[in-house]
Amino acid sequence: MNVFTKQSISFWNIFPIFIFILFLSPIIIVCSSLIGDYNENWSHLYNYVLFEYIYNSFYLIIGISFFTIIIGTTTAWIITNYDFFGKNIFELILILPLAIPPYILAYTFAGLFDLNGSINNFLRLILPVESNFVLFSNIRNLYGAIIVFSFTLYPYVYLLVRTAFLNQSKSLLESGRTLGLSKFQVFYKLSIPLIRPALIAGLSLVIMESLSDFGAVEHFAIPTFTIGIFRTWYGMYDLHTAMQLSSLLFLFIIIFIFFEKLSRSNNLYTSPNESFQRLKLKKVFGFKAFIPFICCFIPIFIGFILPMIQLINWMINYNLSFFDKKFLQTTFNTISISIVAAFIASFIALLINFSIRIKKTKIIILFNSFLSSGYGLPGLILAIGIVKLFSIIDNIFFNIILTGSILGLIIAYLIKSYALANSTFESGFSRISTLIDDSSKILKSNGWNMLTRIHFPLLKTSFLTSFLLVVTEVVKELPATLILRPFNFETLAVSTYIFASEERMYEAATPAIAIVLVGLIPIIILTNMIKYSKEKMKN
Amino acid sequence: MKFFNNIFLILFFIIIGCGNSTKEINIYTSRHYHSDDGLYSIFTDKTGIKVNVISGKGAALIERIKSEGKKSPADIFFTVDAGNLWKVQSKGYFQTISSNKIKSIVPENLRGPNDEWIAIAKRARVIFYNPKKVSYNEIKNLSYEDLSNPKWKGRIAIRSSNNMYNQSLVASLISNNGIQKTETWAQGFISNFARKPQGNDRSQIIAVANEEADLAIANSYYIGLMLSGSKGSDQLEAAKKVKMHFPNQENRGTHINISGAGILKNAPNSENAIEFLEFLLSEEMQKNIVKNSYEYPILENVDPHLSIKNFGINFKEDRTSVADFGTLNPEAIKLMDRVGWK
Predict the structure, then answer these.
(1) Please, which residues 275-334 of chain B have a Cβ atom closer than 8 Å to chain A?
(2) Are residues B222 and B335 in the same domain?
(3) Using CB atoms, which residue from B6, B200, B333 is nearest to A231?
(4) Are residues B109 and B128 in the same domain?
(5) B87 touching A, CB under 8 A?
(6) B52, B59, B160 ranked by CB distance to A488: nearest
(7) First to last CA, chain A
(8) B5 CB near a chain A CB, below 8 Å?
(9) Fewest 10 Å CB contacts: which of A107, A269, A314, B215?
(10) Sign of the torsion formed by the C-alpha atoms of A399, A405, A411 and A416
(11) d(C-alpha A226, C-alpha A103), whole Å
(12) H/E/C letters for each residue in B274-290?
């Protein structure tokens, strides 16, 4: 009993609980709608549209999961094991599609592949075909949406899985080879099971992001569950039922996370002696190098190069007088607010995951998994929860006005993007052997000391990965920014949206490209970091 | 240290953001046309009143107004959809606009029931057709109701029912013909679609130009945008191939929707807000709006943009109160769900 009391007043327990209360409140506010009335709109939904929404969302996530796993793990495997022409560049640019928000990719894909889109027009121009020739007849359907999401979201899988591959011990895989496994068998019998936590972490981000998306599916006119939520709110003027629908989506994600945790609760994935002897990269030349090259090139081409060509094409078609004061201010706003939010989010995730590791308080572990699930709520619904939370806080503390302040916006970003930071640290911590903790405890290193001297140095890459992911997320974040921002405060995503919502793609292209460029900055930092740690290892 | 510098920088912005006491007006707008920035800066130049803006989806802005309650800094809610104005009005967030000047300019059917909001500009939801595929006899006297006739099978392009312009159109049909008749009409109408509803209004016009469909329903101002060439030469070429038809000229007139605004009950700067609305209805600004957004003006002595004027200006407008679009919008959505209009 004495031990329990001592534990519960420690910083490592109080801090996470404080954060949980803050972060979970908007979700609880949204879910509290479930207790309220169920009005007559429900019978309408049930009779006519609900099952169609579920059906479409289901097929969407199945398709996207399938493709992101294939693209993400294949590229990560190739990059960590082979040395081929362009490998160093691919390693960096494979995450570029992450910088393009799905709705922008949807707009560009529609621009490229519509009946009179750039690609069909181009083919008509170069091929001896009739003027009504159509190669790509319809991109605006479920399959089109699967392609769009898969090629913009696979970097989540790639990033986390690659980090896991990099940390796989060489000796284990070599033992596999010695014991007679073929190269392919080593891949799926040893490597894949070992990277499963990372794979699942990446995949859940993909699933949550695609479930919560509104812009892309709306542009493709696919009635998904999220479309249903917004149709109910905007069209039937029924926010209450819309929040009930969102809560159901949220419950689905909770159940998903619960089963995922359950299914791997019996396995210990940390390797007892973390070996820094990496697999030696296999050099491939000539025609053989062509296969890994193509495997890495296709995702980047579809997810990044092609849409960028279209965006640049639009931008040039408009005019180049966009570098005005307002544009620079907008860019500055975006960069500074995303850096602040990413730093705080990563720091919080580090502390909470460390707390879980040393204290193993059951309730915190449980809460932590709920926290991440907020990511799967449609952004605007979560934003409504945040607005309601802020109005409660504003009413308690009369002098602080969160709604419409930068502080409120940062808190919203933290709530929205915590899942990204958390999943990075979850897989980061799972790769550090628990034996290290035990040894450091023997050496009387505890708490902050252990975190700063033992874990943080080992988690630098995780910290930067988390930082990068949150920056790209905040740079792209739209719904919460739109509703919570102060007067006259624009971010690049807001500017893009304002033009894109009117389908004025020529004007939208410039801020969209700027989003991509801003997304590149953290990528460059991350790369230097990885290089630096590699060199250090060599010494 | 860099991170902390940035945090201080942001805190600094919060502080200077709070300590502003000049003459100002706060606008919540879902009408985020780029050209509106021009309107705001002319207003500031003329009156010295600073314009603060946040833009977003109408429904989301309404939630923000609601949660801000009495402390809300919002003076004006500005939007492109009568339904949203009705929603704010029905919750009692608007104050009555007392300016006689405004009331004398804006006709009654384009105002709230108790002058809670007013129209700033109008748009018509019209039919665009390809003269190569649709004969004069077919298009002459064509009404929205006629489009459920099986002779149009596979010939009509229109965007998805998620779109508020379509919701307002169906709401106006319900208002005039009743639910039952409108539902039967909608069943026939959707079976005449040339393709699954997709894209925006402009892509419907392009579909007509490219002969994917024979006619399309879209808002009037889109053709102005396309003809201006600012959307690229492809769209200019497409726009030249189509003609505009005003439906229901033989009976109640063509469906009209509005860009409109109202002043909020707790508006801290309501006098400036009235000044702003009067400014928007001035001849100069009506000309400015017409020039940039290709909408129809509210002021009678102002002409629409030439490229819109060329399609005809003396058409008969549907006088159905735009407030009805708001009340009937939920019914319209459900009706479209029932008939399977995606």
Answers:
(1) 329-330, 332-334
(2) yes
(3) B333
(4) no
(5) yes
(6) B52
(7) 49
(8) no
(9) A269
(10) positive
(11) 14
(12) HHHHHHHCCHHHHHHHH
pLDDT digits (tens, 9 = 90+) for A130-170: 666 666 667 778 898 999 899 999 998 998 888 788 777 67
Distance from CA of A31 to the nearest CA of B (A): 17
Q: Are residues B102 and B162 in the same domain?
A: no
Q: Summarize chain A as % helix, strand, coil (round to 5).
A: 80, 0, 20
Instruction: Name the domain count of chain B.
Output: 2
Amino acid (one-letter) located at B264:
L
∠ CA(B16), CA(B21), CA(B27), 5° rounding?
A: 90
- One-letter amino acid for residue B186 of the chain: A
Structure tokens at A444: 């009387």
Specify whether B102 is located in the same domain as B54. Answer: yes
Looking at residue B112, the DSSP 8-state letter turns out to be: -
Please answer yes or no on whether A235 and B330 come within 8 Å at the CB atom.
Answer: yes
Tell me how long chain A is.
Answer: 539
Do B223 and B167 share a structural domain?
yes
Nearest-CA residue of chain B relative to A220? Answer: B198
Asked if B164 reaches chain A (Cβ–Cβ under 8 Å), the answer is: yes
Print pLDDT tens along chain B (342 aa).
455 555 555 555 554 444 445 789 999 998 877 788 889 999 999 999 999 998 888 888 998 898 888 888 999 999 987 888 988 998 899 999 988 999 999 988 888 889 999 999 999 999 999 999 999 888 988 999 999 999 999 999 999 898 889 999 999 999 999 999 999 999 999 999 998 888 788 889 989 998 889 999 999 999 998 888 777 777 888 889 999 999 999 999 999 999 999 999 999 999 999 999 999 999 999 999 999 889 999 998 899 998 888 888 889 999 888 888 888 999 999 999 999 998
- Domain of B49? 2-122+257-309
> A141 to chain B: which residues are within 8 Å by CB?
196
Length of chain B: 342
Pairing of strands B50-55, B156-157: unpaired
Q: Is B123 on the interface with A (CB under 8 A)?
A: no
Q: Shortest CA distance to A249 belongs to which of A210, A199, A215, A220?
A: A210
> CB distance A223–B73 less than 8 Å?
no
d(CA A17, CA A11): 10
Instruction: Inspect the interface and report whether the beta carbons of A410 and B17 lie closer than 8 Å.
Output: no
The reply to whether B197 touches chain A by the CB within 8 Å rule is: yes
Please check whether residue B72 is in contact with residue B264, taking contact to mean a CB–CB distance below 8 angstroms: yes
Are B17 and B53 found together in one domain?
Answer: yes
Count Cβ–Cβ pairs < 8 Å, chain A vs chain B: 142
Q: CATH code at B330?
A: 3.40.190.10
pTM of the complete model: 0.83
Kindly report the average pLDDT of chain A as a whole number: 81
- Of the residues B41, B67, B266, the best mutation for testing chain A's interface (the one with the most A CB atoms within 10 Å of its CB) is B67
Write the residue in B63, B83, B203 that is nearest to A387 by C-beta: B63
Residues B42 and B160 in one domain: no
Judge whether B97 is closer than 8 Å to chain A, CB to CB: no
Residues B95 and B188 in one domain: no
Structural contact between residues A300 and A94, judged by C-beta atoms closer than 8 angstroms: yes
Place of tokens 């000309």: B287
- Residue B332 one-letter amino acid: A
Instruction: Answer for the pair A199, A69: CB distance below 8 angstroms, yes or no.
Output: yes
Q: Check if B150 contacts A (Cβ < 8 Å).
A: no
Residue B94 phi, psi dihedral angles, 5° rounding = -90, 155
Task: Report d(CA A288, CA A227) in Å as an integer.
Answer: 46
Nearest to B14 among A238, A405, A488 (CB): A405
Is B32 within 8 Å of chain A by CB?
Answer: yes
Chain A residues whose beta carbon lies within 8 Å of the beta carbon of residue B10: 336-337, 340, 406, 410
Give the start-to-end residue ranges of the domains of chain A: 7-33+67-265+290-538
Across the interface, whether the CB atoms of A405 and B17 are under 8 A apart is answered yes
